[in-house]
Structures are given as structure tokens and as C-alpha cells.
Amino acid sequence: MKTGRRKGAAALSGVLLFSMLASACQSGGTTETASETGGSVSKDGFPIVEEPITLSVFSPSADMAPWDTMPVIQEMEKLSNIKVEFQTAPIDSFPTKKNLVFASGDLPDMLYAADITPAEQVSYGTQGQLVPLEDLIDNYAPNLKKILDENPNVRKSITTTDGHIYALPFIDTTAVWYRGPMWYNGEFLEKLGVEEPKTTDELYAYLKKVKTEDPNGNGKADEIPLTSVKLDDLRMYFLGFWGMYNEVYYADKDGKVHYTPQEEGYKGYLTFLNKLWNEDLLDHETFSQTDEQKKAKGAKNQLALFSDYYPYFTLGGTEETMQDPMMTPVASEIAGTPVYGKHPGMSSNGNFAITVTNPNPEASMRWIDYQYGYDGATLWTQGPRGKMWDYVDEATHEKKFLDVPGGGDREEYRATLTPNYGIVTPGVNIPELTNGLRSEVEDWVVKQNEEKLVPIAKIPFPNVYLTNDAQTEVSALLSDMNTYVEQMEAKFVTGQEPMSNWDSYVAQLKKMGSDRIVEIYQEAYDQWNSENAQ
């Protein structure tokens, strides 16, 4: 399975769980403000500036094609009258290059898909290297302003502690998953005559049957009831069985903040996985295998329960398979379970910013705002009309895919049309973008989400900004604590550390500052919640 194709399919899976925002239309042509080099800047419509201007952009790149050769970039320049000169760095080295750019003071005009962390937004914003965006949004970003007005939580969540917005996110209020969910091998369920488990006890009993009753029918005891890669792919899902919404910290339904690794529910999670490990129901290669090795087991029809964006990514076969159901989260002994930690509907890090050296901030805001409406989101995610897609019915936005030139992979072809490939970009997900393009299995996944996850889902914690001092303290504390928790999780699950040592483990966490983490985030949550209620 090609990585690009998997990414594209996964991106479609979060669509249409709730009604999404209508896009703001691109029409008119009111002009008001003069840019330094391009004359007046239009508040709506195209071109954005009367006279051509050039702006520089710094961004990561998947390096599938030079950005300046891409049809999307060429079309955007025609529409806007803004030529963009791209300075790109490979994804892996981009964080280091980004830090060097800020340290040098030789800033580009804009940063695109730049993964600007909340701490970086506060730091570079308060140092005066990033331009506050709130006034530009209100005056030069009709699409984005409409979204923020209709979703005040999003505006609140991109506003820093000094009251400014320094970076823009990718917004998807339909999103459900933080990462791929769990899936059952439907063939195994059918052969064993088992309905989907509803409790942890029923789940254990089912995994036991998988181990002992040869559901793949090859006469060998080679079935693996539950597999994982270092628990990273199942942890979030399983924690919900014991009432926890996230892996590190979360706010419960009453607004009380919890540090997950010291909760009683976390002890229940570890105890259950240790039981599965001891009875060889959890893959004993969990802590050593790669994702590719996990998928090789799936291709040999050995796996009963696993995580991925789509089941066929692991089991192989065709995309149009709906026989392998999404796992319904199961209830434990803890009251009120299961729960599910829902995606907050926006990227936690900033994907677009304007620097203080930019001579045309108004034009820059208009340029990026196009991606927050239907027409711009379509252009930047799917390429220009007539390349990869065309309309079946333009009035309803129903589209169809066109044949890929030379019969190649569609996602790899898309990567030559637009920079929006392999990176988290600014913009918005609107369900209408994929009208007519979604496969039957993608619509089925949406239905699975609505039935199994959405009713028990809650955003674990809002996107909040800490003060510089608080952020520094939290980063230092969590750096050591995360390492300790990861090591102890593996030891508890594999039995290297007996569960009888739970109390001493919690005592060590408290000594390392776990209660301080709760205190800092409780204060941040209460502040966010009180401001949000105003």
C-alpha cells in the first residue's frame, strides 16, 4: 500500500459526522487598503491586488514535485496577482530549519504548513517576529471570519494568553479520530459465531476463542488475537474502556482535570493488558515490531483485532470491503464507560503565520483566506478542475474522478498538482469537497463512526495556551515523566514490574510533578472555560 494513497483515503474518513459550515462565496471586489507594492488590496473577489506582487513562503515539503511547477500554484497566481516564491525544507529536517530561520532574523513573508507549536506562537509572537492576525481576519478574511463566528470555540482556541492570534490552524469540525480506530477481522467473528463484545470480560472471552479455535481455518495455532506497535496505536482507544479521554491529561464531563497515568482507570487498563499478555492474547512482538511487520501478519490472515485507518490497510484486499467492523468501545468495571476522546476539530499547532517583515500583510491574509472557503479548499486539496476531477453537477458540488494520466496512482498524481500532500496545511475540511468522490467504504466508515464513537465522544481538552513560564515548567516536567510512564507501561504490561507496585509507581509520578501538571492545566481550563462562557 502506497503511503500517499493511504493518507488520502484516511483524510476522507472523518468527513460528514456533523453538519459543516457553508463556504463563504468569493465575489465582488471591494477595495480598501493599499499594500506597499501592489496598490489597493481587494477585500473580496479576485484579483487580490491590482499590480502583481511577490511574497516569500517557508514550508516543509514531501518533495513530490517543485512547488512552482504545480498547477495549483500557477492557478493561484493567476487568480490573485500574487507570485509566491517558495523556500522548502524536507519534512524531517523542517523543525530544525524553522528554528534556524527564526534565530537568524532573516524571515520569510509567510510560513505555510509550518507546524508552529503553541509555545512557539507565544514566544515568537511576543518577541514581535509574528504579526497579530485578529484584525486582519476580521477585515480581510471573510471565509475564516465566518467559520470563527459560527464556531467561537475555534477562535478561543487559537487566541494566546496575550489576546492575540499569531497562527492559523487547519479546521475540521467534523473530525472524530485522533488516530486510526480499532477493527475486528469480520471473518473471525463470523466463523466463531460471536457478536461484537460489549464489555471487557466479553472481549477477553472472544480473544480467548480466537487463540484456541482456529478461525482462519489453516489447522495451525497461528492466530494473534490482539496486536499493536508499542501500544501507540491502541492506547487511546483502550483507555476509553476505563473512562479516560486521553493519554496524558484530560478534563472530565464536570471540568475536572486528570493526569491519566496515575488514574485508577489507568491501573485497570494496565491490568487488563497484562492479563492478555500473560495468556498470549496480546502479540508478544508488540514492543519490537514495526507497522510493516504488523501488516504482514494481517496479510496472512492472522489478526483478529488491530488498529489502522481502514481495515484493508492491515488485512490487505480491496478498498471496497465492509466485512470488517470498527470495534465498538467496550465497558469496564468503572461506571460511565466506555468513553471516547474525540478530535478537537482543528490542528493543535499553527499552520500559517505572517512575519513582521512582510510588506503586504493584508494581501497575505486574503491569499490564505481562499483556502478557508469551498472554492479555495477544492483547488488546494484536489487541484484545478479538469486535472484530477470534474463536476457532475456544479450546483450540488457533486464531482467525479478523472482518469490519471498514464494510469498511475491517484494520490501520487495529486502530489504533483498541489503542495497539500503529506503535510498538515492551513484550511478547512468541508464535506461538500468530496461529494461524489467518496467510495462506498468511506461512507460506511462515516456511518460506523456515527453509530459507535460519536455518541460517547468528548473532546479531551480544549486547545489552550500557557504563559511562557507555565509552558517552560510543563515541558520540563513532562519530558521526564513521559519517558518514565512509557517505560513503566511496558514493564507493567509484560510483567517485568508487578501490578502490586502500582502505589510506588504513583508515588514516583507525584514526586516528579504529576499533581503540578494537573494544577497548571486545571487553571488553564478554568480560564478558557470562563472566557468561553462570556
TrEMBL record:
Keywords linked to the UniProt accession: Signal
A Pfam family matched in the record: SBP_bac_1
Residues of the signal peptide: 1-24
Name of the protein in its database record: Extracellular solute-binding protein
